[in-house]
């Protein structure tokens, strides 16, 4: 791991070992092709104003992310998802920059306009510019590529992501660090769980019948996966965001508030929460797999790919491993050098003492 510059890390650069009993080494064989084609698309819209912004935009390594969480998917649908990820990272960075005085209003307004642009061909709700042109191109190609049900899954997921981002921004404006319960209830929305899984399903050709997809045990498993991914993102991105005032709303800072301790002291407790959720995910997934039909079974496998690929991606993405608040440009080859563990840091199989998550454990059979 490249040494940090400027202020020291509150949690350090050596992260705790990750518990993730899935194959973390999978990657799509067309990953390099996807990256090349996506960058050509980005450059065709001149999405970045200068070379520095372009370097940090590409440091998100969206093709690597997509290729790790969807290691066997359809290339053309994956390309759309890669491009959406580049675009979404740009939106996320915009939401986390600038004056807080009008951010909630700006984000709410932008969210409504963006959502309708996905659903309606050229509604004329966004100002002219390269970002709008890129969005309209993506939206048009997405409406053509996805089935009506897949498109609905994607637009609902996008709305949920934007709703979570808006909630988080409103907390920042009010100077509120949410409670662990409130944060846990919304973390999978902030993370864009539905946004991502819509593409995992589409690119893998997975078609789980609605009555199965929205059954309580599958919903609980999906939420648990989104929560775990969000926790991992909070751990990997902590050093990228530790310059912000007020402090970033992430699992570590939320736990630090809950326990009245420093972020470094909160890190093991945060990992324990994440690992307890992973234990629940594994148990519930095994339970569902015993009775699952073909499509649901494939969905369960895809969730495991998402969890494992997400960790491996964050480990080597320059956006996280050589963060912008400490480096003028991304550092090629930067890595957290993570290690793995075979057992959870907290071996308890009891429900987490978080009311908003308790219903996950209620889906387990006696």
Any overview of this molecule?
By secondary structure, the chain is mainly α. It has helices at 31-44, 51-58, 62-69, 75-95, 103-119, 130-145, 148-174, 180-190, 193-204, 210-213, 216-241, 251-259, 263-291, 294-316, 318-321, 358-361, and strands spanning 18-19, 340-341. It has a two-stranded parallel sheet. Helix 5 (103-119) packs across helix 6 and helix 12 packs across helix 13.
Q: What would the keywords be for this entry?
A:
366 residues, two-stranded parallel ribbon, single chain, mainly alpha, 16 helices
What share of residues is helical? Answer: 55-70%
Rounded mean pLDDT is 93
Name the quaternary structure: single chain
Reported for the largest beta sheet, the result is: 2 strands, parallel
Strand order of the largest sheet: 1-2
Shape: globular
Order of helices and strands: EHHHHHHHHHHHHHHHEH
Count of discrete alpha- or pi-helical segments spanning 4 or more residues:
16
Distance between the termini: 45 Å
Task: Give the SSE map.
Blueprint: E1 18-19, H1 31-44, H2 51-58, H3 62-69, H4 75-95, H5 103-119, H6 130-145, H7 148-174, H8 180-190, H9 193-204, H10 210-213, H11 216-241, H12 251-259, H13 263-291, H14 294-316, H15 318-321, E2 340-341, H16 358-361
Parallel strand pairs: 1-2
Task: Please provide a brief summary of the model.
This protein is mostly helical and 366 residues long.
């Amino acid at each position: 791991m490249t040494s940090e510059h400027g202020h020291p890390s509150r949690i350090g650069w050596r992260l705790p070992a990750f518990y993730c009993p899935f194959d973390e080494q999978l990657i799509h064989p067309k990953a390099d092709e996807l990256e090349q084609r996506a960058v050509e698309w980005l450059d065709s819209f001149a999405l970045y104003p200068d070379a520095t912004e372009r370097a940090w935009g590409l440091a998100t390594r969206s093709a690597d992310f997509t290729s790790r969480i969807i290691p066997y998917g359809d290339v053309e649908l994956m390309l759309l998802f890669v491009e959406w990820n580049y675009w979404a990272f740009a939106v996320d960075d915009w939401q986390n920059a600038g004056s807080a005085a009008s951010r909630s209003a700006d984000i709410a307004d932008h969210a409504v306009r963006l959502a309708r642009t996905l659903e309606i061909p050229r509604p004329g709700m966004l100002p002219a510019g390269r970002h709008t042109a890129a969005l309209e191109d993506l939206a048009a190609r997405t409406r053509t590529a996805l089935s009506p049900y897949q498109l609905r899954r994607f637009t609902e997921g996008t709305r949920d992501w934007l709703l979570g981002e808006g909630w988080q921004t409103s907390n920042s404006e009010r100077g509120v660090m949410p409670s662990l319960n409130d944060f846990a209830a919304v973390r999978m929305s902030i993370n864009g769980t539905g946004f991502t899984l819509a593409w995992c399903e589409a690119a893998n050709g997975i078609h789980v019948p609605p009555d199965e997809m929205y059954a309580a045990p599958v919903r609980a498993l999906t939420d648990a996966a989104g929560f775990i991914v969000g926790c991992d993102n909070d751990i990997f991105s902590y050093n990228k965001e530790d310059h912000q005032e007020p402090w970033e709303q992430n699992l570590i800072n939320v736990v630090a508030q809950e326990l009245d301790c420093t972020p470094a002291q909160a890190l093991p407790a945060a990992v324990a929460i994440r690992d307890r959720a992973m234990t629940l995910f594994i148990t519930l997934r095994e339970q569902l797999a015993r009775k699952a039909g073909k499509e649901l079974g494939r969905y369960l496998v895809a969730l495991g790919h998402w969890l494992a690929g997400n960790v491996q991606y964050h480990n080597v993405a320059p956006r996280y491993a050589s963060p912008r608040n400490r480096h003028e440009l991304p550092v090629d080859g930067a890595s957290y050098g993570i290690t793995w563990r075979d057992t959870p840091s907290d071996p308890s199989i009891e429900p987490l003492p978080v009311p908003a998550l308790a219903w996950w454990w209620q889906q387990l059979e006696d």
